[in-house]
Amino acid sequence: MPNPPKFSIVTCTWNSAATLADTLASTRTQSCQDIEHIFVDAGSTDATLDMIDAYPGNKLLLRGVRGGISRAMNHGIEAASGEFVAHLHSDDYFANAAVLAGVALNLAASRRDWLFGAVEVLKDGALIAPFPVRQFSYFALASGAVFIPHPAVFVRRSLFARAGMFDERLKFAMDIDLWLRLAALSPPAALDRTLAVFRDHAGSVSSANRIRARQEEFCVRRRYMGKAPLAFGIYCLRYFKRMRALRRMA
């Protein structure tokens, strides 16, 4: 049997033809091609499936996966055979052709079970420079001082068996919930390098959704307050300040 790939790249799609080309190109041009690309589609009716069908290389398409983004991401994890799993949504793309090669080298050198880096945000046609990646600690993660952007995260597949996958009951903070569980078992390597670009669609998130997202994040972080109670207290100060600002905007 052939050896499993180093990376399983999971891309969730739903009528994604307008942006998917950038995702596909950024994966196809990686200098490291020790990958499988898993597409999880929710029932696209535009050209998305045609684009995936024409995409060369090692790929797998899961059709008709409905029930939300967390369920789609979990289906991708379950189908993965690679050593490390990354979720690169159809709105996102790798920052350059050396991303996977650099990640592989860093993971080998650090011997960590997962890694995260920085993302640039593409908004109104312009790239916004990323925040520097801070030194990781569980305290910093639990207090909200460390931000882990999902398009720049790579997780050893076997770690999901220990930590579990995305909580499909969550709508906004499923990634934060997973990072807190992963970090409690194994601290990640923090790579101060831009790994991916995230598209920020103007007007795609209403003020009401931002408030609900913050509320859900608060509930998620409260689940784990026992692991770092002082950090949770510091997060609460940030939370109430941000909520006041969001409510004024709403």
Automatic annotation (TrEMBL):
Residues covered by the Glycosyltransferase 2-like domain: 8-97
SUPFAM superfamilies xref list: Nucleotide-diphospho-sugar transferases
Gene Ontology MF: a single term: hexosyltransferase activity
Pfam hit, one: Glycos_transf_2
CDD domains: GT_2_WfgS_like
InterPro entries in alphabetical order: Glyco_trans_2-like, Nucleotide-diphossugar_trans
Name this protein carries in UniProt: Glycosyltransferase 2-like domain-containing protein
Organism expressing this protein natively: Massilia psychrophila
